[in-house]
Amino acid sequence: MIPDARFLKQPRAFWADVRTISQAVGYTVRRRKGEKRGKGEIRVPSLDEIRAAYEKLDLRWDHLMNRASVPTATGTRLLDYFSFRAELLNKTVEPLLMDEPRAKRVFNQLRARLKPRCPIPMNKQKGPKRAPAYLTGIINMLVEANSGALPCNFDPRELTTVTRGGFPVRTLARRVDGAFPGAVNPIAVWEVKEYYYTTTFGSRVADGVYESLLDGMELEELREHENIEVRHYLMIDGHVTWWRDGKSYLCRIVDMLHMSYVDEVLFGYEVVERLPTIVKEWTAIARNVAK
Predict the structure, then answer these.
(1) Which of 85, 146, 250, 267 is the most exposed place for a label (fewest CB within 10 A)?
(2) If DSSP codes are grouped into helix, strand and coil, which group holds residue 10?
(3) How many C-beta atoms surround the C-beta of residue 30 within 10 A?
(4) Dihedral (C-alpha) 129, 130, 136, 137: value to the nearest 10 degrees?
(5) Do residues 267 and 1 lie in contact, with contact meaning Cβ atoms separated by under 8 Å?
(6) Distance CA 155, CA 121 (A)
C-alpha cells in the first residue's frame, strides 16, 4: 500500500487528533452477542462520538466542529481519513492477510518456479510448527528474482550506516531485517513481521510496530537534515494475529504510513503483487548511482 496523497503532510496536531479519537472512541465496532471473535470491523467515529469523547477527556473540540455539529475543515479531513482507513482495512487489507496454509502454498509455488539461491530462514517455532519463515522466504525470493543479479543483504547482522565522503553521518539504533544492496548506504531497508502461530496479540508483536516507527523517525531525521533518502518498507502477515487480535495496530500502521515513517506497507499476499515492481525501482536507482 502506498499512502493516499490527501492525508500526507498533515500537521502533527492532526495525528494527535487521530490517535486521541481512536483511543477514546475505539478502533473497532464491538462484536454482537454470539458473533465470532475477529468479526468486528474498523470503526468510523461520528462527530457526536468525537465531541463526547473530548468532553469526557476535558479537551476542546471547537477546532473540529461548531456547536451545531457542522465540521470545520480539520474536522472534515479527520472524518474523511477515518472513513478511508476503515475502508482500506476492511475491504482491501483483510483479504490480503494470509493464514499459515495459504502462506505455505504461495511459498512453495514460488520456490518451485524461481528455484532460489538466496537464504530461506526457518521460523522460531519448535516441533511440528518448525518450518520456513514463509513471508521472509517469499520476500527474499522475489528480491533475488527481480534485482538484476545485484547484491542484497537478506539478513544484516550490523547496524544500518549512512556515510558521506567516507565518514558516517548516521547509524540507526536497530538492525533491520533486510537492506538493498547492503547495510552501508542502502537504497532501501525493510522490516518483516510475520506471525502465523501466535495465539494472542502480545507485547512482542506490538513492539514490532513501534520498532518500525523508531526506524522511520530516524530515517525522517536523516532525510530532513542531511537530504539523504533511504526507502523504508514494512511487510506484515498472519491473518489471525493481525486481523482477529491486532486491528488497532493495523490502524496505527496505516497512520504511520501517512505520517511518512514508512514509504509503503505490504500486507500479506500484496508482497507477491507489489514487491517485484518495487525491487526493479531499487535496481534502477542502484545502476544509475553506479554510472
Answers:
(1) 146
(2) coil
(3) 9
(4) -110
(5) yes
(6) 9
Alpha-carbon span 211 to 223, nearest angstrom: 18
Length of the chain: 291
Tell me how far CA of residue 245 lies from CA of 135, 143, 208, 238, 262, in angstroms: 19, 30, 15, 10, 23
Angle between helix 247-258 and helix 73-87 axes, rounded to 10 deg = 120
pLDDT tens per residue across span 252-285: 999 999 999 999 999 999 999 999 999 999 999 9
The span from the CA of 199 to the CA of 264, in Å, is 27
Residue 181 DSSP code: S
3-state secondary structure 217-269: HHHHHHHHHHCCCCEEEEEEECHHHHHHHCHHHHHHHHHHHHCCCCCEEEECC
Q: Give pLDDT tens digits for 161-216.
A: 999 999 999 999 999 999 999 999 999 999 999 999 876 777 778 888 899 999 99
The set of cell numbers assigned to 201 is 496479540
DSSP code of residue 5 = G
